[in-house]
Write a structure and sequence with these properties.
Layout lengths: L7 H6 L5 E3 L8 H10 L2 E5 L5 H14 L4 E5 L6 H11 L3 E4 L5 H9 L3 E6 L2 H10 L4 E4 L5 E2 L5 H12 L5 E4 L5 H10 L3 E4 L1 H4 L8 H7 L7 E4 L7 E4 L2 H7 L4 H19 L3 H15 L3 H6 L2 H10 L24 H19 L1
Parallel strand pairs: 1-2, 1-9, 2-3, 3-4, 4-5, 5-6, 6-8, 8-9
Antiparallel strand pairs: 7-11, 10-11
Length: 353
């Protein structure tokens, strides 16, 4: 491996490769996280779709499968976020990643216990804000990325954030990365690592049903769409029959009863009480400036993603995906993927020099 690939990010979290496997809901479970960690990357366990006991069991399962560092993705507005952080401290989890920026007290709670705090951001101003709060690194996702995303492409957003950070903390680039050339490009922009979601979803270690993975591989780079019809905010997903129906004008009024039913299903599955769901919903509404109807629609997301990514019901579910899906044609193991990226990056660096 080229010496340039050992970055400040690797030193910060204790991994061999400057690569992050993102905390995708319903996808980033113990098997994928431990496989990513054993491959030398930083695996991130998704906890937003788990209740507290499921998270505890999942952390224990990852620890049985690897002795390498890993992280847990948290919702900063979760009603039990402090209890989850206490669990991570007790279990020696290395990284807390946040889909939304945590407030300073949560950051300090983690850092006092030696946990590295990495929020995801989508704008230069967000980077400046969380730097003032004292985070350890930032993950910046460009518009090519899957799931909730912005409109600015990685090639524009990443250098903006790098310039804003000015080397104070490592920057992790996400959105459109899948190989060693992309890793070298990110380093050239000034990033210290890359993060990948769709590429890790499409590995043999991912728990996503094989039939769903094969469906992903049939899609091209123009076969995703950014829709607000799933949960009221921009969300990049594969074009499917359901998404096309939603995009073609299915009435929001008609979709609200479905969203309410999905909220009840998610409540039953996770054990959340109505008070907890209300507290989290209000926090989400305020943090993301959602209308009341958008807040109700947001209840669609967990169950629609579960239908596609867990149950394999692609006709009635939603499949989050980055545009990178259109250039992927295989299902390697995490070990094969990480080694291949490092080899490609080394070759690219050597050819440049």
């Amino acid at each position: 491996m080229h010496s340039r690939l050992s970055t400040s990010f690797c030193d910060l979290v204790g991994v061999r490769a400057p690569i992050v496997q993102t905390g995708m809901g319903w996808v980033a479970g113990p098997s994928l996280v431990s496989a990513s960690a054993n491959a030398g990357a930083l695996g991130i366990l998704a906890s937003a779709t788990m209740d507290f006991d499921q998270l505890s069991d999942s952390v224990a399962e990852v620890k049985r499968a690897t002795d390498q560092p890993f992280g847990v993705n948290l919702r900063a507005d979760a009603a039990d976020v402090e209890a989850r952080i206490d669990l991570m401290i007790a279990e020696g989890v290395k990284v807390a990643s946040f889909a939304q920026a945590p407030k300073q007290p949560l950051i300090e709670r983690c850092q006092d216990a030696g946990i590295v705090v990495i929020p995801s951001i989508g704008a230069k101003r967000h980077a400046e804000k969380v730097l003032d709060w004292g985070v350890d690194a930032v993950l910046v996702q460009g518009g090519e990325g899957g799931g909730h995303t912005g409109s600015v492409p990685t090639s524009i957003l990443l250098p903006q954030v790098v310039d804003a950070v000015q080397g104070r903390v490592p920057v992790i680039a996400a959105g459109g990365f899948f190989d060693g050339r992309g890793l070298v490009a990110a380093l050239a922009y000034g990033a210290d690592a890359i993060a990948m979601g769709t590429r890790f979803l499409l590995t043999s270690d991912s728990s996503v049903p094989q039939s769903v993975k094969e469906l992903y591989l049939t899609h091209g780079v123009t076969d995703t769409v950014v829709t607000t019809q799933v949960d009221g905010v921009p969300h990049r997903v594969l074009k499917t029959g359901l998404v096309e129906k939603l995009e073609s004008g299915m009435s929001k009024i008609a979709s609200l009863p479905r969203a309410a039913a999905n909220a009840q299903k998610f409540k039953s599955m996770t054990g959340l009480g109505f008070r907890d769901m209300w507290t989290e919903g209000r926090s989400m509404q305020q943090a993301m400036d959602l209308s009341w109807s958008q807040m109700v629609m947001a209840a669609n997301t967990p169950m629609l993603l579960k239908a596609g990514l867990v149950d394999g019901n692609t006709d009635s579910g939603v499949l989050a995906s980055g545009q990178v899906v259109g250039v992927l044609d295989d299902l390697p193991s995490c070990a094969e993927l990480v080694d291949r990226i490092l080899t490609e990056a080394t070759d690219a660096l050597e050819s440049l020099s």
